[in-house]
Amino acid sequence: MSSRHSARIIIESSKAPLLLRVLSPEAQEEISERSSARLRAEEGILEVQIEARDLVSLRAAFNTWGRLLKVSLQLLEEEWGNDF
Q1: Whole-prediction pTM
Q2: 3 state DSSP class of 56
Q3: Yes or no: is domain 5-83 CATH 3.30.310.50?
Q4: Fewer beta carbons within 10 angstroms: which end of the chain, N or C?
């Protein structure tokens, strides 16, 4: 019996569609055989849904997506300034 583990990261931003566009290539590329991520943006919210076969993979994927989000947000804030 195989159990799955999951986590969600939710970012509230008026630029959620832009973040989705920036990060979509990363979600389409398989980072690991043991985990996957789905992205969606809706009404000012970006949601990253992470699923993994085990807790170790979930933690690794969560950390990876956390870093990707942090860097993306920093770059977009530098580009857009306070408008972001």
Answers
A1: 0.84
A2: helix
A3: yes
A4: N
